[in-house]
Amino acid sequence: MAKPERAVLEPLGEEFDISTHFRTSIRSLAVSPFSDSETLIYAGTKSGALVLFSVTPKYSSSTALVSETASLDTPRITSSSEGLSLLRTVAVMCYQKLPCDEQIKDLLRRKNFKEAISLAEDLECAGEMSKDMLYFVHAQIGFLLLFDLQFEEAVNHFLQSETMQPSEIFPFVMKDPNRWSLLIPRNRYWAMHPPPAPFEDVIDDGLLAIQRAAFLKKVGVETAVNDDFLLNPPTRSDLLESAVKHIIRYLEASRQKELVSAVREGVDTLLMCLYRTLNSVDKMEKLASSENNCVVEELETLLEDSGHLRTLAFLYASKGMSSKALAIWRILGRNYPSRLLKDSSMDESTMDSNVWDISGKETAAAEASKILEESSDQALVLQHLGWIADINQHFAIQILTSEKRESQLSPDDIITAIDSKKVEMLQRYIQWLIEEQESCDPHFHSLYALSLAKSAVELDSTQSLDSSSDPKISDQSLNSIFEQPIRERLQIFLQSSDLYDPEEVLHLIEGSELWLEKAILYRKLGQEALVLRILALKLEDSEAAEQYCAEIGRSDAYVQLLDMYLDPQNGKEPMFKAAVRLLHNHGESLDPFRVLETLSPDMPLQIASETILKLLKARFHHKCQGQIVHNTSRALDLEARLARLEERSRHVQINDESLCDSCHARLGTKLFAMYPDDTVVCYKCYRRQGESTSVTGRNFKQDVLIKPGWLVMD
């Protein structure tokens, strides 16, 4: 058999573009390239030997089928069950069906990733490839891109593969062996990429490959390295940052998937490690403070060594390790480093470190208070209450008065533990016990009253020593927790509570100028004269004094008050205006003779003449009115007696035909009774009905019967 000669393959026209025809209709055919002509089968003697050439290198096979033709003058396409042939005068090109995965593998080996995924998607749409196989191809392409240092594109393909497990990324972040080594699937895919290795090693190997490719390109040797890397070689730090950012993107998306517990732990733990690598403090704290599956044992040393104590505290708290979390917040609250709070976007040199320290301490105290508000561990609360109160007493109050804990703390132990210098904190806690917890313990009420009284006395003495200071400013400086001034709170409590010891409180404020508070206490003790004297003479509050007299309810109280106005004693001038006001408002209820006896000879008559005249007229009017009422009452009484006598003296005639209005029995000689509405009943029915209710059901005690002729007054 003659050995066929090589022939030069001429390019085909559009109508005979086999690659286009293959992609649009056949899809699973491949051209068979052969460079060794001895492997070809002789096709005939007409026009000489036929030689097979490769036109489209991306479609390949290891065998070929050459079909015989009678005439090669006109190019044409022939097909059979085994393949497709293009016949021309100078060449025969044969196509043969190949498995889908072999075609995709060939594309991947040549790094034609876009064409490979396009082919896979077309096959999946045509039903010639399963969905899982498409996910498999995405994952395979992702790993190939990852080892080519194209991390963004790699992660994009990972995210499109629903069958890829997040644990397959673990070896790139954490060296083996580790806690999750056994979870990593031993899946090498099509063995097209190296085994997983830490990112540092992958990047180092990739940079060496780029250097080698650059050298080979200089000598004219083509390589598979990305041309962009050859033109602009990346730095190791840039590649490492890109790898970390995009793997973070993949792990964040993986958190939304349904994963087994161990894999969730790995995802969150490695995510925290990657955040730390980029020093993404905000993301670290957000992950640590939210619900997470981080493994504390894997992170606590790492975070502590890197100085991310806030993140570690959040992580401890999220795992219920309150004691460790509070220990960290205590350290930060006592000596807060500004760098742990500083936002990465701000320039440290432009900020006041004192402002940051104050803000940092407040933050530490606030976070610690959040933990303690839910804690029922009294020893733990008392251990950290002091330093939190030193920073901000509001946070300490929130801890003590929290309703979030399952069981409340012991009030006695809390009161004992509160620093005696933190008076407002003690007052606020006892106020919460009394007002919100509705405690009726006299001890707490007395303790609260004494504490308020002591603070009020101290404030009063301070204002007395410095008369030039503004009382409002001084009061406000002493009341940073409460909105109401101290004296107002004291007065309200003294009036509203009956469970404290008024004598003990009175003894405490005896030498002070807290006259209104004294009046309230004397009133609790029932010392009316002292209350009136304070209201009328010390406070000169005529309205309050008159109101108190009205509460007493006796007319002699007004006379007593009038006497105080006219004879205040202690060298004080008589208060004639107040006395006249009292006579004007309440003179009608006073005895004129007692008033005249009380009036001082020094009181000018013209001041009170009009009021006294009005008082006398009112007194005369009251006397006449009383006489009218008295005489009218006597007339009514007389008329009522007369009517009763007439009713009792009425005669009733009973014959043999008379019947009982209740039982309808003949009365005959029986005893009977008659009601005011003229109904007659036998004695037996009378006993049953009673003397107030007649047979008609009318109750004469509730519905009084009025007959014509009786005196009736509205």
UniProtKB/TrEMBL annotation:
Record InterPro entries: Clathrin_H-chain/VPS_repeat, Vam6/VPS39/TRAP1, VPS39/TGF_beta_rcpt-assoc_1, VPS39/TGFA1_Znf
PROSITE patterns for this protein: CHCR
Domain spans labelled Vacuolar sorting protein 39/Transforming growth factor beta receptor-associated: 267-334
GO BP term, example: endosomal vesicle fusion
CHCR repeat coordinates: 399-574
One GO CC term, this protein: cytoplasm
Coiled coil (residue ranges): 628-655
Residue ranges of domain Vacuolar sorting protein 39/Transforming growth factor beta receptor-associated zinc finger in the record: 649-689
Keywords: Coiled coil
Protein name per its UniProtKB record: Vacuolar sorting protein 3 isoform X2
Protein's organism: Cucumis melo
